[in-house]
Amino acid sequence: MTLFDLTGRTALVTGSSRGIGMALARGLLEAGARVVVHGRDRSSAEEAASTLHRSTGGETRVATFDVTDPSAIEGGLVEIEQHWGGIDVLVNNVGMQRRSPFLEATKADWDDLVATNLTSAFLVGQQVGRGMAARGSGKIINIGSVQSQLARPGVTPYSATKGGIVMLTKGMCADLAPYGIQTNAIAPGYFSTELTAALVADEQFTAWVADRTPAGRWGRVDDMLGAVVFFASAASDFVNGQVLYVDGGMTAVV
Ligand code: NDP
Which of 52, 90, 146, 160 lies at 20 to 30 Å from 31 by C-alpha? Predict the structure, then answer.
């Protein structure tokens, strides 16, 4: 399927040393891209990169920088470009969660969530977008959440950042489409990863997820692969500024 073929493309998936990001990296490798595996902790990123290389046979590199630090981002991107040239596909996947009732949430929690989940996509998107614009093509995929559209008690700052991802995606579409760049978002439902480990272990919450999700189960990271390959490939060349919910139907029903 040449429409979905990523041979010769270079992809950076932020936060791909585990969880959803690691699965997205695997999907891109399986479609033929070479992939930069990223996180802050070097040894976990290296372990993930070699696991991915072994399982797919694809080419991987490791980059470690904090996506909340503009100068670290710049240094990390220069290093990638020196070795592999320009980035063709950027997945802004890094995200964090802090749970507390709204009245108890601290400004420090708010600031960390906004910096990690939203400002990071602006900063990395802008720096990578400049190179894509100069080359006249590129694919940017921002990772949202069902909380991009639906609120829940106890995660209000997180929901605000994920709502922001939707409008960041549409704004980037408006500004970057003239340069041949498509920016779209994938919004996962409830997936079993390290970020949600406490919820997966909570029997009551797991029963709620099964009941609230038409598919009747937690998402598995492999459920994300089709969406990321679609948005990274020529198959989506006329799709721009969209949000695709990969949520087992959760946002379609009340
Ligand atoms: P994980 O916590 O499992 O993984 C997070 C990744 O991001 C790790 O690779 C981590 O590596 C890296 N990371 C975290 N902070 C930074 C930082 N400041 N700079 C650089 N790297 C960083 O997350 P998930 O896989 O669960 O989530 C991935 C994305 O999907 C997030 O945007 C999340 O909001 C979203 N999502 C997840 C859902 C779920 O059910 N799991 C549901 C909906 C959305 P290191 O610690 O070494 O830095």
Answer: 146
Atom of ligand 1 nearest to the CA of 41: 47
234-254 per-position pLDDT tens digit: 999 999 999 999 999 999 999
**Residue range 171-211, pLDDT digits in tens:** 999 999 999 999 999 999 999 988 899 999 999 999 999 99
d(CA 199, CA 219): 13
Of these residues, 158, 179, 190, 245, which one is catalytic?
158
Strand order, beta sheet including 34-39 = 60-64, 34-39, 10-13, 89-92, 138-143, 181-188, 243-246
Q: Which domains does the chain have, with CATH numbers?
A: 2-245 (3.40.50.720)
What is the reported pTM? 0.98
Q: Identify which of 14, 18, 90, 221 to mutate to test ligand 1's pocket (most ligand atoms within 8 A of the CB).
A: 18
Nearest 5°: phi and psi at 191?
-115, 145
